[in-house]
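User: Hi! Is it possible to get a structure for several chains at once, not just one? Here's what I have:
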Amino acid sequence: GEDVEQSLFLSVREGDSSVINCTYTDSSSTYLYWYKQEPGAGLQLLTYIFSNMDMKQDQRLTVLLNKKDKHLSLRIADTQTGDSAIYFCAESRQNAGNMLTFGGGTRLMVKP
Amino acid sequence: GAVVSQHPSRVICKSGTSVKIECRSLDFQATTMFWYRQFPKQSLMLMATSNEGSKATYEQGVEKDKFLINHASLTLSTLTVTSAHPEDSSFYICSARMGGGVVFGPGTRLTVL
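Assistant: Yes, the chains can be modeled jointly so their relative placement is included. Here is the combined structure:
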């Protein structure tokens, strides 16, 4: 069955880089996603990567995908206090109607 | 960009009443939408997949007679929580696939007194 796992908590200082990690088990994953959820708000899509890519960069965000190890990471450069939120990784498979399976979320706390 | 809206954003109702939550794709068509539920401090739980023009597909453990889903058009799916009880209080989020990404609605916070 499918399973997506993340560490629960990450604390960094403002200006440092943050790396949030995610592992998944389903080798047929088509897309992998990173979502941000701020307190009391819905989910915001940050970025996604197609499974045949190794890396995707978008401004301060860098996504790395190691398909062999089924490991996905999100690096946030120059982390700001406004980046404090819960970050969810998720995967979807074309043969499952693009249904998303989410990790448990990583709470990022950025200290001034 | 693609936007999904939900209405209402917050609703408080009495136990035993029914509540309808709307999910709309504002500038794109979505043949498939998804309904999730999120308990406090927990991840999202998929409740059902809503298919335009056909019956929804419910996940194991989700009561289809309690959580009625209707996907009447390519831009609207509704979730009706029937005979709501306090344990149904939660954050309900819908999503729709758009190109390579999945767009989420802002969520609806339901409180059942």
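Chain B touches chain A through 19 residues (CB under 8 Å). The mean pLDDT of chain B is 88.

User: Great, thank you!
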